[in-house]
Prior knowledge:
Blueprint: H1 2-7, E1 11-12, H2 20-26, E2 28-31, E3 34-37, H3 38-60, H4 64-69, H5 74-85, H6 91-97, H7 111-120, H8 129-142, E4 147-151, H9 155-165, E5 172-177, H10 191-197, E6 207-210, H11 213-223
Parallel strand pairs: 4-5, 5-6
Antiparallel strand pairs: 1-3, 2-3
Amino acid sequence: EDFIKCLAPTFVGEFDALKGSELRKAGVNRIGNLLIPNDNYCRFEDWLRPILETMTDEQDAMSKEELLENPWTPSRFVRRLGREIQNEDSVYYWAAKNDIPVYCPALTDGSIGDMLFFHSYKRNFLLDTVRDVRAINDSAVEAKCTGMIILGGGLVKHHTCNANLMRNGADFSVFINTGAEFDGSDSGARPDEAVSWGKIKLDATPVKVYADATLAFPLLVAKTFASSSSEDGLAVASGGAASVM
């Protein structure tokens, strides 16, 4: 969606006022209270298709040894798109520009997955997801200190916490979501559950904020990271490396 919003506008609508059947007939898709015309995805397809062709050309030009050493991974895939988008409104543009890896274990879930599905009928494009699992887990294991700021839940939350299990827990943790734990979902699980798994350290003081992340996270950033900014731009408070999922 980050890339699609750079190619065409997404509109604010309503949660309940618009019937799905009417939106379908009008060629409009709803995500919560956001409305996305089908044409936006057509533009995304037109933008991504030649990039996929070029990436596959680069893969096919590699020797077997080169391919094993430097395969396409979801994080490398996202970095490439971040460089191609050439739009400062994109989060991934800035991640690529600042050499910040973006791990996306569910890359195939969504429009990019659809495009890879269509592409697979023409050419054989390989994505090494295990290489990224190793990369994010190694980054946690090798870090002197880790902190997790997790917006929302689901796969991203679990994957980030699980990487910290490999180092016997994160030192700092902040969850921001509206999930409740009564349904047994990982999304709604409180930090204390992660402590039981060794994903958060025993002596840590984790926090879960029950709030809309789009409202709470900007306030959190304004009071913490943004207050550490310098004339050169936003600085990572610890001076360490960062990754995004």
